[in-house]
């Protein structure tokens, strides 16, 4: 079986800062503030990557302490592996079982909070994120498009029934008491283990063949021919048979981004006046093509990332059109700085408007 190549596991060339003087944090804050305000109210789309979640205790892939830099042998699971081999699913769910609590405990950091504040201020519009950690938040009015899905749920590959990841974690714990005990006995140790961006952990030398995982509960009732043991754990099926197989609601390597998600992300880029990339090297094609599309439409383009970025020479070359800004500063620090810069500017007009309304109301009342 020939697997797709994982793109850009080696470091990118060093970034070219643009404008060239924006090498200090104060200068970067001033330039990013000008970039965001020039695009217009709510007209900047935020595209975030794993780098924005590093301060929440999660790894990125290609940063200085990224998974591909520290572990040259690391390779995430591929879609074809997961759907074709029982052993591959055992390995994935065992590692994910240990990694999920660390992901579930992660909380939004200062960069997420600052991005949310900029949305509340009307500076940022929607968010398209490559991350599957759900740290941008939901249900508060800000649109978040998860380009590569989410770890919050698992979905059946045959009937598409969804189960929450927390419920699935309890099912895995019931089927694997020794692994559950490992989490309980070594909780302090496990908290020190770095979780990969896709939610699993590296466990060198561990045997996965005895790890058990359950089938989709609906398919188990509908398909009595499914092979399970006396505890309800999946036994090996016919090769390639995915009836009742549950998979995380994330896009694996070798799997296409959901068409509806892809269409919505493209529509948001089309509607935006500018795109701001934070914490991403744009190594994955799905994200890079969105930014390339914005650049070709001569929209504003800003990138805040520690380390080089795919397509950087094209995006910031001498022929580039539209507003351009390229910064290599910590995301949280520069975004917090922009919030501070804008707080006074945005609050003042609102205060003046309220004062004007009060004066008008008073004048009307006196005239009456």
UniProtKB/TrEMBL annotation:
<dbReference type="GO" id="GO:0070403">
    <property type="term" value="F:NAD+ binding"/>
</dbReference>
<keyword id="KW-0520">NAD</keyword>
<feature type="domain" description="Deacetylase sirtuin-type">
    <location>
        <begin position="22"/>
        <end position="345"/>
    </location>
</feature>
<dbReference type="Pfam" id="PF02146">
    <property type="entry name" value="SIR2"/>
</dbReference>
<keyword id="KW-0479">Metal-binding</keyword>
<dbReference type="InterPro" id="IPR003000">
    <property type="entry name" value="Sirtuin"/>
</dbReference>
<feature type="binding site">
    <location>
        <position position="159"/>
    </location>
    <ligand>
        <name>Zn(2+)</name>
    </ligand>
</feature>
<dbReference type="GO" id="GO:0046872">
    <property type="term" value="F:metal ion binding"/>
</dbReference>
<dbReference type="InterPro" id="IPR026590">
    <property type="entry name" value="Ssirtuin_cat_dom"/>
</dbReference>
<feature type="binding site">
    <location>
        <position position="219"/>
    </location>
    <ligand>
        <name>Zn(2+)</name>
    </ligand>
</feature>
<feature type="binding site">
    <location>
        <position position="156"/>
    </location>
    <ligand>
        <name>Zn(2+)</name>
    </ligand>
</feature>
<keyword id="KW-0808">Transferase</keyword>
<feature type="active site" description="Proton acceptor">
    <location>
        <position position="148"/>
    </location>
</feature>
<protein>
    <submittedName>
        <fullName>DHS-like NAD/FAD-binding domain-containing protein</fullName>
    </submittedName>
</protein>
<dbReference type="InterPro" id="IPR029035">
    <property type="entry name" value="DHS-like_NAD/FAD-binding_dom"/>
</dbReference>
<dbReference type="InterPro" id="IPR026591">
    <property type="entry name" value="Sirtuin_cat_small_dom_sf"/>
</dbReference>
<feature type="binding site">
    <location>
        <position position="216"/>
    </location>
    <ligand>
        <name>Zn(2+)</name>
    </ligand>
</feature>
<comment type="similarity">
    <text>Belongs to the sirtuin family. Class I subfamily.</text>
</comment>
<keyword id="KW-0862">Zinc</keyword>
<dbReference type="GO" id="GO:0016740">
    <property type="term" value="F:transferase activity"/>
</dbReference>
């Amino acid at each position: 079986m020939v697997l797709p190549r994982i793109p850009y596991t080696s470091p990118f060339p060093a970034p070219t800062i643009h404008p060239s003087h924006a090498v200090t944090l104060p200068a970067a804050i001033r330039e990013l503030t000008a970039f965001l305000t020039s695009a217009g109210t709510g007209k900047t789309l935020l595209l975030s990557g794993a780098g924005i979640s590093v301060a929440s205790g999660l790894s990125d892939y290609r940063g200085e302490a990224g998974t591909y830099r520290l572990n040259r042998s690391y390779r995430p699971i591929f879609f074809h592996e997961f759907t074709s081999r029982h052993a591959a699913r055992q390995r994935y769910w065992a590692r994910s079982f240990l990694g999920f609590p660390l992901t579930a405990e992660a909380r939004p950091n200062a960069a997420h909070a600052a991005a949310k504040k900029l949305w509340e201020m009307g500076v940022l519009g929607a968010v398209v994120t490559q991350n599957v950690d759900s740290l941008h938040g939901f249900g508060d009015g800000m649109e978040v498009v998860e380009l590569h899905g989410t770890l919050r749920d698992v979905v059946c590959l045959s009937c598409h029934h969804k189960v929450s990841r927390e419920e699935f974690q309890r099912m895995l714990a019931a089927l694997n008491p020794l692994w559950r005990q490992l989490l309980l006995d070594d909780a302090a140790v496990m908290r020190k283990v770095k979780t990969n961006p896709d939610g699993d952990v590296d466990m060198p030398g561990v045997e996965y063949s005895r790890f058990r995982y359950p089938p989709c509960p609906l398919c188990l009732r509908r398909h009595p021919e499914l092979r399970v043991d006396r505890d309800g754990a999946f036994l090996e099926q016919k090769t390639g048979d995915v009836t009742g197989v549950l998979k995380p609601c994330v896009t694996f390597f070798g799997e296409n981004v959901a068409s509806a998600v892809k269409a919505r992300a493209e529509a948001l880029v089309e509607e935006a006046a500018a795109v701001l990339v934070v914490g991403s090297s744009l190594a994955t094609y799905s994200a890079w093509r969105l930014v390339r599309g914005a650049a070709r439409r001569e929209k504003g383009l800003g990138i805040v990332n520690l380390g080089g970025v795919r397509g950087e020479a094209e995006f910031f070359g001498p022929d580039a059109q539209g507003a351009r800004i390229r910064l290599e500063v910590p995301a949280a620090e520069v975004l917090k700085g922009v919030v501070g810069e804008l707080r006074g500017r945005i609050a003042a007009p609102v205060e003046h408007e309220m004062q004007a309304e009060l004066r008008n109301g008073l004048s009307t009342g006196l005239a009456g």
